[in-house]
Write a structure and sequence with these properties.
Blueprint: H1 5-10, H2 14-26, H3 37-54
Helix pairs in contact: 2-3
Protein name: DUF1315 family protein
Pfam family, one: DUF1315
Region (Disordered): 54-91
Amino acid sequence: MFQSLDDLLKILNPTIVASLKRAIELGKWPNGVVITDTQKSLCAEAVAYWEQSHSAPESRVGYIPPKATPCGDKSSDDKSDEDTALTWVES
């Protein structure tokens, strides 16, 4: 049937991926059989693999949006370092 994990991953489609996600969420297969920890891990890996090449980053499982202003990032309106004066505060 399948020669490798890659062969299996190639047949994934949105319907199969949705079914795998549902099995992970519920902890059981559609027929009611409990999903094992190994199966859950493999399903999650397959879902992540499929989403990597078929989904926008924002719609992938586990997506965390970036902060509004990352550290060290300056907008074009900010002054350059040379234009910013330092003020020392005595305590």
